[in-house]
């Protein structure tokens, strides 16, 4: 939005100086920069002209202080530059990849499900505080492979249960699919989580488009997703799973090796048939010999 | 602020090009602002990258109109329109609250310490959902919009549906420009809460002709004045 070049952001109230190193990302609200501070070291700085959004997001992140999934926030301040007032908050810089980048490497099914279950548990935690995380997409989820830790970075979309959704990405939005209203409730949350799971399973965000339940089933089938898992996803999309808590419980019950088992069974059958044939041949030869 | 009455009046321009007919849209937007109407705009970007001038104009109009500016591809218009609608309401309230604070305690929000602004942010967000809204959409139907018009129509219908979830009453009107038979503008739909009425108005729209953005802003102002005549002096 703002095409300015600058190298230092200086807080109007608390006088801290941040040297901007590079742009980390851009979003609907503003821009995120990697910056350094002489005491705090590397930090992420979110800068915007919208006082409302910045103040709101800062306050929301602070609510989750002590929860491992949210970044630590340091301060909220204003910055005056060329007669304009900007607002910013400073938070911990989270190293690692976001989920979109992480997905570029192939992940086995078990790992995908494990990561997804961690994400679900985090969303469940957030839902328990009475809020819905409406914009739960790949770019907002940071993955630390080594520690199997998941962190969320964008808290601008959280709204109290019962209110209208403020921010969304159409793919994850129940209303864009024509499957329910754009209102923050627990089944809206389950819907967006189910879409996230689907993109994980399909190994791509771009391969999953807004469609119908039957198009979802087709996508899942193409990716060899076990039947019980795709059934669960469909239920989640249809609003038949009441909360992320229930979603998580149902996921735990799913046997990911279902496919493999049938494979194993097939191999066993094949082996039995083969040995029977061998026996038959052997017997035939014997009979011939006897003659 | 103590009595929660009043109406927010706003217009949002959806356009893919620079105005080229009639009065200067920046002047028209300044007039609207002076009358307590916020003017925002969404610029639709094409792949065949539009010139700086179009963007400059959107910026200048919204600056004069006290509103917000945003840009998107046509496929993202739906979401941009909805986010923009809510942001503009809150932005307008922020300006009003800030003015009131200034008259009461002698400083506006940006002169309060950041940490102490949260209460005000909460107030604005809450009130923003409950306040009544008179809302005009100005849809550019010039020739260049031809291949985008169907998507834009759908987005406006979706917006109407979404606005029904607000706690306050929202009345939406639609002006398209240019109009027919050499008219600068066409009132496709006067203020309504009925999606079917809006659909009827949208159905008739065709893309053709130039881009009289300035006259369209004036027409939207008049539409609001006519609707709101006795209360036109009453700001929130
Ligand atoms: N604290 C952080 N540490 C590291 N990277 C971050 C951090 N916050 C945001 N980012 C990066 O910036 C991108 C955009 O941030 P986000 O908060 O989603 O912006 P917006 O709310 O404007 O959409 C993210 O996808 C992420 O890659």
Automatic annotation (TrEMBL), chain A:
GO molecular function, one term: protein serine/threonine kinase activity
GO cellular component, one term: cytoplasm
Gene3D superfamilies in UniProt: Transferase(Phosphotransferase) domain 1
SUPFAM superfamilies reported for this sequence: Protein kinase-like (PK-like) (SSF56112)
The keyword Ion transport belongs to this UniProt entry's keyword annotation: no
Domain Protein kinase intervals: 18-256
Domain of life: Bacteria
PROSITE patterns: PROTEIN_KINASE_DOM, PROTEIN_KINASE_ST
Keywords carried by this UniProt record: Kinase, Membrane, Serine/threonine-protein kinase, Transferase, Transmembrane, Transmembrane helix
Signal peptide, first to last residue: none
Membrane spanning stretches: 267-287
One Pfam family here: Pkinase
Xref: InterPro entries: Kinase-like_dom_sf, Prot_kinase_dom, Ser/Thr_kinase_AS
Protein name: Serine/threonine protein kinase
Source organism of the structure: Lutispora thermophila DSM 19022
From TrEMBL, chain B:
Database matches in CDD domains: vWFA
Signal peptide location: none
Domain VWFA residues, every copy: 1-88, 134-236
Pfam families per the UniProt record, alphabetical: VWA (PF00092), VWA_2 (PF13519)
Cross-referenced InterPro entries: VWF_A, vWFA_dom_sf
Protein name: Ca-activated chloride channel family protein
Top-level taxonomy: Bacteria, Bacillati, Bacillota, Clostridia, Lutisporales
């Amino acid at each position: 939005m703002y095409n300015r070049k600058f190298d230092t952001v200086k807080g109007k109230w608390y006088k801290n100086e941040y040297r901007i190193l590079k742009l980390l990302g851009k979003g609907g609200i503003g821009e995120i920069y990697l910056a350094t501070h002489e005491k705090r070291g590397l930090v992420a700085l979110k800068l915007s002209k919208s006082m409302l959004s910045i103040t709101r997001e800062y306050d929301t992140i602070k609510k989750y202080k002590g929860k491992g999934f949210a970044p630590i926030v340091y301060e909220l301040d204003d910055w005056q530059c060329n007669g304009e007032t900007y607002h910013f908050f400073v938070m911990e810089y989270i190293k690692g990849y976001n989920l979109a980048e992480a997905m570029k490497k192939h992940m086995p099914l078990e790992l995908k499900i494990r990561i997804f279950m961690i994400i679900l548990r985090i969303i469940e935690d957030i839902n328990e505080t009475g809020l819905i995380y409406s914009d739960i997409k790949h770019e907002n989820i940071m993955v630390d492979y080594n520690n199997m830790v998941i962190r969320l970075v964008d808290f601008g979309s959280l709204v109290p249960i019962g209110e209208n959704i403020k921010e969304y990405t159409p793919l994850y939005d129940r209303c864009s699919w024509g499957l329910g209203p754009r209102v923050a409730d627990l089944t809206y949350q389950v819907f967006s989580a189910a879409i996230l799971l689907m993109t994980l399973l399909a190994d791509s965000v771009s391969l999953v488009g807004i469609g119908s339940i039957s198009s979802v089933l087709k996508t899942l089938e193409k990716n060899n997703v076990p039947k019980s898992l795709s059934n669960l996803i469909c239920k989640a999309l249809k609003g038949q799973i009441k909360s992320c808590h229930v979603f998580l419980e149902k996921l735990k019950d799913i046997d990911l090796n279902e496919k493999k088992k049938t494979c194993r069974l097939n191999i066993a059958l094949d082996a039995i048939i083969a040995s029977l044939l061998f026996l038959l041949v052997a017997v035939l030869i014997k009979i011939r010999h006897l003659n | 602020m103590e009595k929660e009455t009043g109406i927010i009046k706003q217009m949002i321009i959806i356009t893919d090009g620079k105005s080229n007919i009639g009065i200067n849209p920046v002047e028209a937007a300044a007039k609207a602002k002076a009358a307590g109407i916020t003017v925002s705009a969404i610029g639709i970007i094409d792949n065949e990258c539009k010139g700086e001038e179009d963007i400059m104009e959107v910026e200048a109009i919204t600056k004069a109109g006290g509103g917000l500016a945003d840009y998107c591809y046509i496929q993202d218009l739906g979401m941009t329109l909805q986010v923009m609608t809510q942001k503009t309401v809150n932005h307008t309230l922020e300006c009003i609250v800030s003015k009131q604070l200034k008259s009461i305690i002698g400083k506006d929000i940006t002169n309060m310490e950041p940490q102490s602004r949260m209460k005000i942010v909460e107030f604005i967000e809450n009130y923003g959902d409950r306040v009544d809204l008179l809302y005009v959409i100005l849809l550019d139907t010039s020739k260049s919009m031809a291949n985008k018009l169907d998507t834009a129509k759908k987005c406006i219908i979706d917006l109407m549906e979404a606005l029904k979830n607000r706690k306050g009453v929202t009345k939406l009107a639609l002006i398209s420009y240019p109009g027919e038979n050499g008219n600068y503008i066409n009132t496709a739909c006067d203020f309504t809460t009925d999606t079917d009425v809006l659909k009827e108005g949208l159905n008739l729209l065709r893309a053709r002709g130039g881009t009289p953005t300035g006259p369209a802003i004036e027409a939207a102002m008049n539409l609001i004045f006519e609707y709101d005549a006795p209360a036109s002096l009453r700001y929130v």
